Amino acid sequence: MDRKDFSEKVTPQMLEDGKDVLIDFEKLRKVAQSPDPVVPVIVQDAASKEVLILAYANEQALRHTLESGLATFWSTSRNELWIKGKTSGDELKIVEVRVNCEQNSLLYLVSMVGRGSCHVKDSSGKTRFGCYYRRIRKGGLEFV
Q1: What is the distance between the alpha carbons of residues 125 and 79, in angstroms, rounded to a whole number?
Q2: pLDDT of 41-70, one tens digit each?
């Protein structure tokens, strides 16, 4: 698919449930144009060490995370505070917040309250455990 037509032709369903590799290589360019400065946040299950989400936080989101004990992000698409689980009930309780060596990214170690951490549901309607539920195989995507 031509990259310039990517956002016009690709639907959320194609991205979230499809088996075609449709990587959004423009995401960081969009994030860089956000009116609020952010850093990437890796979210990892504290017990299993499985990576659940990659999100972004601004100063307000980090402050809210540290004060409330709940994983909080800055939604770069909606330009608003995103308290994970506020509407779904699938909260991510903070066990520990780490910062990388250059202090330009964060790692939230969390324990899950609820059934999963992803906003995408599986074919039975259940919240997916994490956002990394497919792998690239033979030029396509395969559910794991």
Answers
A1: 28
A2: 999 999 999 999 999 999 999 999 999 999
- Looking at residue 7, its amino acid is S
Which fold, 3-143? Answer: Ubiquitin-like (UB roll) (3.10.20)
Output the six-digit token pair for 132.
């990394």
Q: Let me know: does 93 contact 70? Beta carbons within 8 Å.
A: yes
pTM of the model: 0.83
- Rounded-to-integer distance, Cα 93 and Cα 23, Å: 29
Q: What's the distance, CA 3 to chain centroid?
A: 22
Tens-digit pLDDT profile for residues 81-99: 999 888 888 899 999 999 9
Domain residue spans of the chain: 3-143
Side-chain half-sphere of 96: how many Cα atoms within 13 Å? Answer: 9
